């Protein structure tokens, strides 16, 4: 293929050259406007990251520290036997062991010391429902980034409570956009892939035991398109040999990646479609999570009648950018 830029007429290239700095200025101005809106009247968005000692929690806490107008609460809930202190870019965060100290009292203390704070949850799948119930009980707005648990029950109970929350299986904004596009396609063209066979393969670091929430959401859209796929048939790749060989995961990202492949094949095998999204590292999720916190803070401050959101709501508002101190 020839580069479109190389083959374009000189006049078109000059137009592109002039448009580029204008687009860059508009993008920068938009980020400034959003950042200003996020910290109106000098307000600081305070964030407690539960699970801060874990890889995803730590990456998110680092993004909080870097983000202008945000402050990291220096303690967080943990289930670890030893409530160690975690260094987050110079901020020491003490782990409060819920086996030794009362989790509810810790949240109440944070409400007194850090008014208006928002919780980010990156803990364990088996803690999802009990943690959500804890936040609801103490009236703490939260962003649930942890996957797993009984999602339908959690969504129902949080919505009925009227507690503000962003709950999503996927925090990466570009992946969320793809997820939204798949959902829209399913709504607009139901049954379009009826008769096709779907195979789904997802690879994550070996520490991730459960099936990807994103894969489940994408499969739901494919099923609406007529595929009839059973979630139990998703292939989970967790061994190093298959990850580096079959999936093509770079060795340096074995401990933090998300490679998903969705393949559709017609009944006679003559037609196939393949959708793929591969993510190395955790920054895409960490930045998206902090964007969700800023979004939720504005909804709380505005006393928005809607209280339960997902990342598509965040994406629609356009409140996603690089806010770095």
Explain what you see.
By secondary structure, the chain is α/β, with parallel strands linked by helices. The chain is built from eleven helices and 13 strands. The chain has a six-stranded parallel β-sheet with strand order 2-1-6-7-8-13, with helices on both faces. A four-stranded mixed β-sheet has the order 10-9-11-12. β1, α3 and β2 (70-72) form a beta-alpha-beta unit. α3 (55-66) packs across α10, α5 packs parallel to α6 (151-161) and α7 runs parallel beside α8 (213-224). The protein is globular, with a radius of gyration of 22 Å.
Structural class: alpha/beta
Q: What average pLDDT do the residues reach?
A: 87
Give the % helix.
Answer: 40-55%
Helix segment tally: 11
Give the number of DSSP strands. Answer: 13
The radius of gyration is 22 Å
Strand order of the largest sheet: 2-1-6-7-8-13
First-to-last CA distance: 41 Å
Unreliably modeled segments: 1-41
Report the sheet-strand fraction: 15-25%
**Outline type:** globular
Helix-strand blueprint:
Layout: H1 4-7, H2 10-38, E1 45-50, H3 55-66, E2 70-72, E3 75-78, E4 85-88, E5 91-97, H4 103-113, E6 118-121, H5 128-137, E7 142-144, H6 151-161, E8 165-167, H7 173-188, E9 197-204, H8 213-224, E10 235-237, H9 240-245, E11 257-265, E12 272-280, H10 283-301, E13 308-309, H11 311-317
Parallel strand pairs: 1-2, 1-6, 3-5, 6-7, 7-8, 8-13, 9-10
Antiparallel strand pairs: 4-5, 9-11, 11-12
Helix pairs in contact: 3-10, 5-6, 7-8
């Amino acid at each position: 293929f020839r580069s479109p830029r190389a083959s374009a007429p000189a006049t078109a290239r000059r137009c592109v050259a002039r448009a580029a700095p204008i687009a860059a200025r508009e993008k920068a101005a938009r980020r400034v406007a959003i950042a200003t809106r996020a910290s109106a009247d000098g307000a600081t968005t305070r964030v407690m990251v539960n699970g801060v000692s874990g890889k995803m929690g730590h990456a998110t806490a680092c993004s909080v520290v870097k983000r202008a107008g945000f402050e990291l609460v220096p303690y967080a809930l943990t289930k670890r036997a030893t409530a160690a202190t975690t260094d987050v870019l110079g901020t020491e965060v003490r782990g409060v062991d819920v086996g030794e100290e009362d989790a509810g009292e810790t949240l109440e203390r944070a409400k007194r010391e850090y008014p208006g704070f928002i919780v980010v949850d990156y803990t364990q799948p088996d803690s999802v429902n009990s943690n959500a119930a804890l936040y609801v009980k103490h009236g703490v707005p939260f962003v649930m980034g942890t996957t797993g648990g009984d999602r339908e029950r959690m969504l129902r109970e949080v919505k009925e409570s009227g507690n503000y929350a962003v709950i999503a299986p996927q925090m990466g904004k570009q992946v969320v956009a793809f997820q939204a596009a798949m959902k829209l396609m399913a709504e607009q063209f139901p049954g379009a892939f009826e008769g096709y066979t779907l195979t789904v393969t997802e690879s994550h670091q070996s520490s991730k035991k459960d099936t990807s929430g994103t894969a489940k959401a994408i499969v739901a859209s494919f099923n609406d398109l007529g595929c009839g796929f059973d979630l139990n048939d998703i292939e989970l790749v967790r061994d190093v040999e298959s990850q580096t060989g079959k999936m093509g995961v770079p060795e340096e990202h074995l401990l933090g990646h998300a490679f998903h492949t969705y393949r559709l094949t017609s009944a006679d095998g003559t037609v196939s479609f393949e959708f793929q999204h591969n993510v190395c590292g955790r920054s895409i999720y960490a930045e998206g999570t902090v964007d969700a916190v800023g979004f939720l803070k504005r909804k709380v401050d505005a006393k928005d009648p809607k209280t339960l959101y997902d990342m598509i709501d965040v994406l629609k508002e356009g409140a996603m950018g690089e806010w770095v101190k």
